[in-house]
């Protein structure tokens, strides 16, 4: 079974909006609906688990119904951090998943994700057990200290990490237990959680737009993107 965990449990503080960013409407549709539709359309996804703020659970149920998200399976309460939100979801999934099942974790606010890329994550996880989408940097990369360049980095080794991040269930679950036992509760990325437990994470290069909508400027970029597709 291939299970998608869609994270919609953050408050979006950097967006500085009253409404949590995943529920902001763009072209009349909430941001989270674009993400859910991509996972609904991905051929290899069997079910969708959504992590949501308690105050928005009724709201997301309406979105699930309005956008006919037939793969929706469960709604899970968020944690205080992204890491805790993911753990809440995988603790629920543990009740029925097998070790060999695949769990994809996706930021609900990466709303440009394409169904084909989601399916590619599933296919590659069967081969590599742990994968993430990532985009190779297209820029000259530097380290700067006190406003001055101190070092140039080899761009061939620099990537922006994206989601989905996809894992065999036993790997993601045991990695989270390991992280908690090491005292970590606020790691913002699941590959960082998995690395100490399973350091063989495969990168799927993605050059398609997959912006994490984080600040107000990103909303304008998303509006522009929607006009062009
Ligand atoms: N406790 C949390 C924190 C984040 N997320 C989700 O994780 C994704 C990526 O996180 P980020 O962009 O950092 O979202 P926020 O935490 O909401 O934003 P900010 O850091 O600006 O407050 C988002 O879809 C967000 O809803 C979550 O489910 N639970
Ligand atoms: C997993 C992730 O999308 C990696 O880019 C993560 O959500 C990033 O969180 P950030 O704290 O907003 O960089």
TrEMBL record:
Keyword flag Nucleotidyltransferase: yes
Protein's pathway: Isoprenoid biosynthesis; isopentenyl diphosphate biosynthesis via DXP pathway; isopentenyl diphosphate from 1-deoxy-D-xylulose 5-phosphate: step 2/6
Biological processes annotated in GO: isopentenyl diphosphate biosynthetic process, methylerythritol 4-phosphate pathway
Site (Transition state stabilizer): 14, 21
Database matches in InterPro entries: IspD, IspD/TarI, IspD/TarI_cytidylyltransf_bact, ISPD_synthase_CS, Nucleotide-diphossugar_trans
TM annotation in the entry: none
CDD domains: CDP-ME_synthetase
Stated role: Catalyzes the formation of 4-diphosphocytidyl-2-C-methyl-D-erythritol from CTP and 2-C-methyl-D-erythritol 4-phosphate (MEP).
Name of the protein in its database record: 2-C-methyl-D-erythritol 4-phosphate cytidylyltransferase
Organism, as annotated: Peptoanaerobacter stomatis
Top-level taxonomy: Bacteria, Bacillati, Bacillota, Clostridia, Peptostreptococcales
């Amino acid at each position: 079974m291939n299970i998608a965990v869609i994270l919609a449990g953050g408050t979006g503080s950097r967006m500085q909006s009253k409404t949590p960013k995943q529920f902001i409407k763009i072209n009349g549709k909430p941001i989270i609906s674009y993400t859910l539709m991509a996972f609904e359309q991905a051929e290899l996804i069997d079910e969708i688990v959504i992590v949501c703020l308690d105050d928005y659970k009724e709201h997301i149920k309406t979105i699930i119904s309005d956008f006919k998200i037939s793969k929706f399976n469960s709604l899970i309460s968020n944690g205080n951090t992204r890491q805790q939100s993911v753990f809440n979801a995988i603790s629920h999934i543990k009740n029925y998943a097998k070790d060999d099942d695949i769990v994809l974790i996706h930021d609900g606010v990466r709303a440009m994700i394409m169904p084909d890329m989601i399916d590619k994550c599933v296919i590659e996880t069967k081969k590599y057990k742990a994968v993430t989408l990532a985009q190779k940097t297209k820029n000259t990369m530097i380290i700067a200290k006190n406003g001055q360049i101190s070092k140039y980095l080899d761009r061939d080794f620099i990537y922006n990490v994206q989601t989905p991040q996809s894992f065999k269930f036993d790997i993601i679950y045991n990695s989270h237990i390991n992280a908690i036992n090491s005292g970590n509760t606020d790691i913002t990325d699941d590959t960082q959680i998995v690395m100490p437990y399973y350091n063989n994470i495969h990168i799927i290069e993605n050059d398609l737009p997959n912006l994490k909508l984080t600040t107000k400027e990103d909303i304008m970029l998303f509006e522009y993107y929607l006009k062009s597709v």
